[in-house]
Amino acid sequence: MRADLTRHGVEEARTPADVDRLLAPGSGSVLMIVNSVCGCAAGRARPAVGMALKHPARPAKAASVFAGGDEAAVAHLRNILSDYPPSSPSMALFQDGKPVYMLHRSEIERREPFEIAQLLTAAFDRFCTSDSAAKR
Length: 136
Hints:
There is one protein chain. This protein has helices at residues 3-6, 16-22, 39-52, 71-80, 105-108, 113-127, 130-134, and strands at 11-12, 29-35, 61-66, 90-95, 98-103. The protein is of the alpha/beta class. It has one domain (3-121): Glutaredoxin (3-Layer(aba) Sandwich), CATH 3.40.30.10. Strands 1-3-2-4-5 form a 5-stranded mixed sheet, sandwiched between helices. The relative contact order is 0.23.
């Protein structure tokens, strides 16, 4: 379940310190994924991330926390995202440590992977500049 994302270059954020490092001021665009064991994560969310990360405009970094596995990291990320209800799986796009786009489980479980990838790539087109792509 973790490898479904890491094989696409998604870094694992296993601790609160990892989350803070990834979302530090000046970090550029970062896609944070709350991964989980549920069927919609396996059949929809993780495949969609793989598709979306092939898009020319994409975040400088992509990372995941694993609900039920990286409990402290998940709690820390959810604290950062406290304006949004907790959701597993979910995806949040950050720009310089601030959330700019959020995709909740309710938006994932009713869509096919290519539809989720389209939502993500539209957000990438809007928030991920060529400067952030150059930082990769």
